[in-house]
Amino acid sequence: MKDVAIIMGSISDLSTMQSTIDTLKELKVTYSVHVISAHRMPQEMINFGKTAAYSGYKVIIAGAGGAAHLPGMVAATTTLPVIGVPVESKALKGMDSLLSIVQMPAGVPVATMAIGKAGAANAALMATRICALSNSKYLETLTDYKQAMKKKSIESGKQFE
């Protein structure tokens, strides 16, 4: 059983969502990856959302570009927390994706991250924090991750001493 489901509307979103995968790997969080298009696979998307909690997932991370309906539509079908990652698009640099994900109507919440790879990495960190509420192992990996970031920052500043 996996704790986090990573879904994306198209395989082309993988270049962004790889940051989510890499961060979850580093944090030792269990996950699975799925390509589910809100526009081209609506029934599969609905079925995934309806069954995600029963499948053992704790959080869904949904990456989408362009119209970016995937995070909101999945949130409409599940009671699990959904974290949206706006994928940068060529036409509007991801602003269209960001606005599509963040402007959800009351009653259909989607936690929305920044556009692109930083947002994808932060989605993994947020999902881990959510999962850590019921899994102390993840608290330890988060603590180690934060310490490693601190050490890296300290080391990077030593070049100026």
TrEMBL record:
It is an enzyme of class 5 (isomerase). It comes from the Bacteria. One of its GO terms (biological process) is 'de novo' IMP biosynthetic process. Signal peptide: none annotated. Substrate binds at S10, D13, R40. Keywords: Isomerase, Purine biosynthesis. SMART domains: AIRC. Its EC number is 5.4.99.18. Pathway: Purine metabolism; IMP biosynthesis via de novo pathway; 5-amino-1-(5-phospho-D-ribosyl)imidazole-4-carboxylate from 5-amino-1-(5-phospho-D-ribosyl)imidazole (N5-CAIR route): step 2/2. The keyword rRNA-binding does not apply. It catalyses: 5-carboxyamino-1-(5-phospho-D-ribosyl)imidazole + H(+) = 5-amino-1-(5-phospho-D-ribosyl)imidazole-4-carboxylate. One of its GO terms (molecular function) is 5-(carboxyamino)imidazole ribonucleotide mutase activity. Residues 2-153 form the PurE domain. Belongs to the AIR carboxylase family. Class I subfamily. PANTHER family: PHOSPHORIBOSYLAMINOIMIDAZOLE CARBOXYLASE, PHOSPHORIBOSYLAMINOIMIDAZOLE CARBOXYLASE CATALYTIC SUBUNIT. Catalyzes the conversion of N5-carboxyaminoimidazole ribonucleotide (N5-CAIR) to 4-carboxy-5-aminoimidazole ribonucleotide (CAIR). This is N5-carboxyaminoimidazole ribonucleotide mutase. The gene is purE.
